[in-house]
Specification:
Elements: E1 2-8, E2 25-26, E3 29-30, H1 31-41, E4 44-51, H2 55-61, E5 67-71, H3 78-83, H4 86-91, E6 108-114, H5 122-133, E7 137-143, E8 152-155, E9 161-165, H6 172-175, E10 179-189, H7 191-196, H8 210-219, E11 224-228, H9 241-261, E12 265-266, E13 273-274, E14 279-280, E15 285-286, E16 291-293, E17 297-298, E18 303-304, E19 309-311, E20 314-315, E21 320-321, E22 326-328, E23 331-332, E24 337-338, E25 343-344, E26 349-350, E27 355-367, E28 372-384, E29 389-390, E30 395-397, E31 407-409, E32 414-415, E33 420-422, E34 425-427, E35 432-433, E36 438-439, E37 448-449, H10 461-467
Parallel strand pairs: 1-4, 1-6, 4-5, 7-11, 12-15, 13-16, 14-17, 15-18, 16-19, 17-20, 18-21, 19-22, 20-23, 21-24, 22-25, 23-26, 24-27, 25-27, 26-27, 27-28, 28-29, 28-31, 29-32, 30-33, 31-34, 32-35, 33-36, 35-37
Antiparallel strand pairs: 2-3, 6-10, 7-10, 8-9
The structure holds uridine-diphosphate-N-acetylglucosamine and magnesium ion.
């Protein structure tokens, strides 16, 4: 097993946020989680996570038996952060660590990762570690179009690492360098800690730089390899909201590319949002403007039309979601159809072939197979049997001002347009309620319920009024 140290103590000042930077989401998960998963994927255990700013909330949000938490109470720089991990690594049995002699000897390669660079892949980390194992250590570098706030890497003619210059310390010439340090390293411990102990904060930010220790190792003659990232975007770190947007876009792109590979049609990937844990089976069609969030699971053959918004939704085979529908925490049976402009709230269960049409809101309700609620209705806290039709304008009056009550309707019943079902109330099977009825009492099976004033026609009344 190989250990990893993940740095996540920084405040992330440039995010200008009350939320610790490590918890800012990209692709639907906190950025730190992506880094931890890459480390796990590369076989790392334990993973020492260095936290400081917002430590408590990070520990709460990101859990794992393989994580060892270390606190860096003052954020004195990345070098200082790594040094804080030493006792935890030693306690975890990672050698007789200490400020030891600099040399390969008994040292073991440990991955050191920035918690704010979440695009790195597990395979990349494995190769980075393998690269380091051939010498003393390695850092991942990449040539990028927009080096932004990343540290610039300067190599000797023979490729050896010469310097890493932070933007705050760089001159114009150095700023123009497009080779950057991605913030992912494989370095030998405990030698690394010996090097860190000699780092001084002689830089524009007054910080103890991890990069200085890496450069010092190279300067002392240890073989520090620059591991070129095949995919340069793996180097993108997140220091501000623009970085966050760019990384989020890339994670979204990767997920959609994988889904397309698995047989999902996505007409305009740049106009679709799909979060990390969403799954979509083959032969689904995703139109532009669709958002698929949280734990949404979509079976094969579903169509999601323009503007559909799904969170924690479960769709069986062949469901159609028509434009601009919101489906939140609902479970939809095979062949169900929703929308356009429908809203399914948590606790909604649609049976196979059920249809919920425009401007219908459903909450905590079970609609049996083949139920139709095609227009303008509110169905809350209800159970509706198979084949029942809910007319336009029907409302389950579930709230009495203090408490919620349930409505129960049997199979193959016809609820006439504009029926008000004053809950708690039951309507039997194969019954009918007259349009505009206010139903307050139980309706038995096989009945017609009329709960409205009878119409009176006063013939000639309006003519007489006009004549006045
Ligand atoms: C750092 C590197 C830079 C590299 C970039 C990659 C240094 C000096 N610079 O710059 O060369 O290109 O990452 O993304 O290392 N952190 C702590 N404690 C601290 C300071 C930082 O845990 O005291 C953590 C941060 O939370 C963050 C990571 O270390 O996750 C990197 O720190 P950050 O301040 O973002 O450094 P960069 O300026 O991005
Ligand atoms: Mg950073």
């Amino acid at each position: 097993m190989r250990a990893a140290i993940v740095l996540a103590a920084g405040k992330g000042t440039r995010m200008r946020s009350a939320l610790p930077k490590a918890l800012h989401p990209v692709g639907g998960r906190p950025m730190l989680e992506w880094v931890l998963d890459a480390a796990r994927g590369a076989g790392c255990s334990p993973i020492v996570v260095v936290v400081g700013h917002g430590a408590e909330s990070i520990r709460e949000a990101v859990a794992g038996d393989d994580l060892l938490w270390v606190e860096q109470s003052e954020q004195l720089g990345t070098g200082h952060a790594v040094a804080q991990a030493e006792p935890a690594l030693r306690a975890a049995g990672f050698g007789a660590l200490g400020v030891g002699a600099v040399g390969v000897g008994e040292d073991r390669v440990v991955l050191v990762l920035s918690g704010d660079a979440p695009l790195v892949r597990a395979e990349t980390l494995e190769r980075l570690a393998a690269c380091a194992e051939q010498g003393w250590g390695a850092l991942a570098v990449a040539r990028v179009d927009d080096p932004g706030s990343l540290g610039r890497v300067i190599q000797e003619r023979d490729g050896r690492l010469a310097r890493i210059v932070e933007v705050a310390d760089a001159n114009t010439e150095e700023l123009a360098i497009d080779r950057v340090n991605s913030g992912h390293y494989a370095l030998r411990c405990p030698a690394l800690f010996g090097l860190l102990a000699r780092v001084a904060p002689h830089n524009a930010q007054g910080e103890l730089y991890l990069t200085d220790a890496v450069v010092a190792a190279a300067a002392s003659g240890l073989e520090v390899r620059c591991f070129e990232l095949g995919d340069a975007c793996e180097a993108w770190g997140i220091n501000d909201r623009a970085d966050q947007a760019r990384v989020h876009h890339e994670l979204n792109r990767r997920h959609l590319a994988a889904l397309m590979e698995q047989g999902v049609t996505v007409y305009e990937p740049d106009r679709v949002t799909v979060e990390a844990s969403v799954t979509i089976a083959s032969d689904c069609i995703v139109h532009p403007g669709v958002s698929l969030l949280g734990a949404t699971r979509i079976a094969s053959g579903c169509t999601l039309e323009a503007g559909a918004w799904l969170r924690d939704a479960v769709l069986a085979e062949g469901v159609t979601v028509l434009p601009y529908s919101v489906i939140d925490g609902a479970v939809l049976g095979a062949g169900a159809s929703v929308g356009p402009f429908a809203r399914l709230r948590p606790g909604t269960l649609l049976g196979a072939g059920a249809k919920v049409g425009n401007f219908v809101e459903v909450k905590a309700a079970t609609l049996g197979p083949g139920v139709r609620a095609s227009h303008l209705a509110y169905i809350g806290d209800a159970t509706i049997g198979a084949g029942t039709n809910i007319g336009a304008g029907v409302v389950t009056c579930n709230y009495d001002g203090e408490r919620k009550h349930r409505t129960e309707i049997g199979d193959n019943t016809f609820i006439g347009s504009d029926t008000m079902l004053v809950a708690p109330v039951k309507v039997g099977s194969r019954s009918i309620t007259g349009a505009g009825s206010v139903i307050t009492d139980e309706v038995p099976d096989d009945s017609l319920a009329l709960g409205r004033a009878r119409q009176r026609n006063l013939v000639g009344w309006s003519r007489r009024k006009r004549g006045k």
